[in-house]
Recover the amino acids of this structure.
């Protein structure tokens, strides 16, 4: 609280200075006039303070030495309150235009608000999310896609595979992993003992990067919220990240897949096994052995045995 004034003229001077500062600030912002006082017949929002039963005790600091106080202005300073006349060109207060929200900030999609608790509700919300994604224009990949590629398989599966992004075949089909890499992925999934369509498959980005290039960091960032919502609704027990882009997109790391593969990581509470991308295995079939080791780690956690060879 401010110190009480020993001399009432000091206080008057301070009030006048504050009012002048306020009016000057209004003037500089183009606003003018003072806020209206509340109408008399409006009930106060809170009860009036009880009057003091006794005067408040004297404040020991009130008796500050006169040298500490502001000089008292001459009486003429307060003779006439200055009339404030708005300059004509400022009489119109400019209209406030709220700033546009930043386009690339990933916003939590409406479909992903996790009210969905039953499996049916989660599937329905995933459908809503997929249709939000279908009209997404958050990044430049929207300009050249044929369609968005959301997911395939069972959204309520215990196991989810996350790849990089759609290629040319996926862009045309509207489903992830339908090209040559997808065919190899299906064989890996079958080797783990799952029937087709039993696991969930999706990508870091939902639109095809042109010329099959890697998605750029801002494109991954723009799509990040969709994947987060998708996985929050699907709730797999385990995730397999296929390749560097997948694990980098999930973890926000820049470490390479050679270093990361085979080591459990966590994505928002879900264990993730990073391994090589099937497209890499098509070029480097000898790496299948390492991938099989990684997938066996996942199977062990899930209590899954490879199907008997017939
Ligand atoms: N590669 C991926 O990472 N995802 C696909 O959907 C297809 C190929």
């Amino acid at each position: 609280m401010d110190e009480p004034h020993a001399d009432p003229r000091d206080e008057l001077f301070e009030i006048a200075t504050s009012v002048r500062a306020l009016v000057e600030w209004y003037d500089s912002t183009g606003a003018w006039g003072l806020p209206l006082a509340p109408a008399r017949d409006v009930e106060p929002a809170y009860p009036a303070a009880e009057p003091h039963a006794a005067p408040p005790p004297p404040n020991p600091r009130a008796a500050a030495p006169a040298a500490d106080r502001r000089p008292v202005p001459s009486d003429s300073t307060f003779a006439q309150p200055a009339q404030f006349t708005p300059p004509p060109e400022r009489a119109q207060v400019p209209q406030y235009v709220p700033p546009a929200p930043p386009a690339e900030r990933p916003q939590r999609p409406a479909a992903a608000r996790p009210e969905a608790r039953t499996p049916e509700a989660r599937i329905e919300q995933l459908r809503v999310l997929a249709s939000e994604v279908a009209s997404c224009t958050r990044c430049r990949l929207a300009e050249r896609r044929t369609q968005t590629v959301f997911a395939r398989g069972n959204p309520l599966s215990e196991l989810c595979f996350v790849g990089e992004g759609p290629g040319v075949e996926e862009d045309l089909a509207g489903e992830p992993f339908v090209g040559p890499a997808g065919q190899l992925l299906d064989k890996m999934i079958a080797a783990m003992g799952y029937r087709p369509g039993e696991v969930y498959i999706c990508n870091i980005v939902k639109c095809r990067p042109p010329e099959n290039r890697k998605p750029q960091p801002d494109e991954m960032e723009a799509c990040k919220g969709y994947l987060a919502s998708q996985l929050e609704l699907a709730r797999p027990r385990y995730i397999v990240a296929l390749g560097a882009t997948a694990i980098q997109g999930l973890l926000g790391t820049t470490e390479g897949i050679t270093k990361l593969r085979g080591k459990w990581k966590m994505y928002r509470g879900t264990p993730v096994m990073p391994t090589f991308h099937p497209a890499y295995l098509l070029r480097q079939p000898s790496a299948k052995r390492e991938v099989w080791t990684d997938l066996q780690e996942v199977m062990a956690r899930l209590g899954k045995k490879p199907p008997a060879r017939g």
Remarks:
- The pocket of uracil is lined by residues 163-167, 170, 176-177, 179, 181-182, 203, 279 (CB under 6 Å).
- The domain at 115-302 is CATH 3.40.470.10 (Uracil-DNA Glycosylase, subunit E).
